[in-house]
User: Fold this.
Amino acid sequence: MFIPADASIVALNKIQKLKQLGKSLTSYVAEFHSLVVVANVKESHVLIHIFNLGLNNDLVRAIHLMGEIPTNFDKYITAVTKIDSNINRGKTTIALTNANQYHNYRPQPKKKDDDAMDVDRLDEEECADCMAKGLCFVCKK
Assistant:
């Protein structure tokens, strides 16, 4: 397939500026692939490096935590897709778990302690009256 030199340079520039940001991984991969075809880049290690530059930070971190990182670009994309799927599944599970925790929350009624003193049993006027007359707060004698 013949591609004019200018088109491949323009595609290379677009690849270098391409970022996943708010896009889905599928959308980012599709756009990346279409530019790679025009740019005529075939080396897996170069493709992987450029691909990672535009990838979301969560995915880049997860990739680096993988045991063995694929060196073939197609296998690399497959691995990244699985990681992205796991991250999204985890976020969904966490969101559902958190939503259910608050949805099912019912505050427990406060139980009265029978052995506790009733310190607020008398209002201020009754308290002042008992104090002025020297009466007991409980039996008022």
Summary: Residues 11 and 39 are 5 Å apart (CA to CA). The mean pLDDT is 84. The radius of gyration is 34 Å. The first helix runs from residue 5 to 17.
